[in-house]
Design brief:
It is a multi-pass membrane protein. This protein is mainly alpha-helical. It has helices at about 5-30, 45-75, 80-90, 95-130, 135-165, 170-195, 210-220, 255-260, 265-280, 285-305, 310-315, 320-330, 335-365, 365-380, 390-395, 400-410, and strands at about 200-205, 225-230, 240-245, 250-255. Among the domains are: about 5-130 and about 285-345, no CATH class; about 200-260, Metalloproteases ("zincins"), catalytic domain (Zincin-like, 2-Layer Sandwich). Strands 1-2-4-3 form a four-stranded mixed sheet.
Length: about 425
């Protein structure tokens, strides 16, 4: 029996079982009793709606998983990858062009399978719970823009990777790692000014007390800003958020317009202090370094397995090729990817706790950050009682109850610093 096939099928089934167990535990952990910290903030009816929203999203996620996982297993066992490769080979195109078509076809199939679930999520679930503001025309435009960016940026990068692994031998992984890292850094630098505006409108925050307080806070923290912008998040959803983007001197803060309409200045400043905290505490550099190392590990392992005859035999391939090897390795990589994702989540949650502490101590108003988190949870119908297993596997932020309770401790420990 092919050991690669055994490992691949076992990894797919294990990930499938783990994900379904996580959803089951999360659903069972939904508590009908409103946590005391949210009394007076969460209306009991709205709290019930938040649990209905969690269940609806989990059912849709489960349905998608139950469709896509059996199809992937069928594609492997029945040799569908080989059928596609042989058909493309018959076209007589250059190897790199064949590789781009092979991977592009797989991406198209994957996107087509996921599209109905995206439509249902946007126009049924989000609509039912009062979040959706995306029109069908805007939905289509967003997908077309995403496709155009993939072709403009992704296709040339993929072609270069294929060429590296076809021609550079043992050095291919290093060249692939370097190019991918360089492209990622460039995109992070130009994203705020060239890419994000393709999807949303960013307007400078108008002069006034809020802008003055933000600029004063940033100055006192030694944080250089190139701008504070309001993003038209309400164009797609009524949910609220804020985020920090850009690198170096291109750092920007973006506030959803929905955030400005629902929060007072103290709460908004606390949210922004949290985002600035990520930069001041070195989180962005650490996460960037972790991402670069993870990419290096990916390509390093890929170099070891991409030309393995056993890997191609597991997929029933009649010939070996770089493009098929890339795809097959990414499937084989599933267990490693899961472990790295969990580790990344652990680090991210630690950073979020530190950023909360930074906001609490530097603004001197931890209660404002707690109020902001409560309002955001209510406005977004967040699950207040996620199961620890679900948090462990998927959460980049600590559960909101944990964050609120931790912020409450700063009232009695004003000298506490971020840790």
């Amino acid at each position: 029996m092919n050991i690669y096939l055994v490992v691949i099928l076992a990894a797919i089934l294990a990930a499938f079982a783990l994900e379904n167990l996580s959803r089951l535990l999360n659903a069972r952990n939904l508590s009908p009793e409103l946590p005391s910290e949210f009394r007076g903030v969460y209306d009991p009816d709205e709290y019930r709606r938040s649990q209905q929203y969690t269940r609806a999203n989990q059912k849709l996620s489960a349905l998608s998983d139950w469709l896509e996982t059996p199809l992937l297993i069928a594609a492997i066992v029945l040799g569908w990858f080989n059928v596609l490769d042989q058909w493309l080979l018959s076209l007589g195109l250059p190897e790199i062009a064949t590789g781009l078509l092979f991977m592009g076809t797989l991406a198209l199939v994957s996107g087509t399978l996921s599209l109905p679930f995206q439509v249902y999520n946007t126009f049924v679930i989000e609509e039912r719970f009062g979040f959706n503001r995306t029109t069908p025309a805007l939905f289509v435009k967003d997908r077309l823009k995403g496709l155009a960016l993939s072709m403009l940026i992704g296709a040339p990068l993929l072609a270069a990777l294929l060429w590296f692994f076809q021609t550079l031998g043992d050095w291919a992984w290093l060249a692939a790692w370097g190019l991918t890292t360089a492209v990622s850094l460039v995109l992070a630098a130009i994203g705020p000014t060239l890419i994000l505006p393709l999807f949303n409108k960013f307007t400078p925050l108008e002069p006034g007390p809020l802008r003055e307080r933000i600029e004063d806070f940033a100055h006192r923290q030694g944080f250089d800003l190139t701008g504070i912008f309001v993003m038209d998040g309400s164009r797609r959803s009524s949910k609220s958020n804020a985020f920090f983007t850009g690198l170096g001197k291109r750092k920007r803060i973006a506030l959803f317009d929905t955030l400005l309409s629902r929060h007072d200045n103290d709460e908004i400043l606390a949210v922004l202090a949290h985002e600035i905290g990520h930069s001041r505490l070195g989180h962005i550099k650490r996460m960037l370094a972790a991402s670069v190392l993870k990419t290096g590990l990916l390509f390093g392992l890929m170099q070891l397995f991409i030309a393995s005859p056993g890997l191609f035999a597991a997929f029933g391939m009649e010939r070996m090729s770089v493009h098929a090897g890339l795809v097959f390795f990414l499937i084989l990589y599933t267990p490693v990817s899961l472990v790295l994702s969990v580790l990344s989540g652990l680090l991210s949650r630690r950073h979020e706790r530190q950023a909360d502490a930074f906001a609490a101590t530097t603004t001197g108003k931890p209660e404002a950050m707690a109020r902001a988190l409560k309002k955001l949870s209510v406005d977004n119908l967040s699950n207040l009682t996620p199961h620890p297993v679900h948090v462990f596997l998927h959460y980049s932020h600590p559960p909101v109850l944990e964050r609120v309770r931790r912020l409450k401790s700063f009232r009695t420990k004003p000298g506490l610093t971020s840790s």
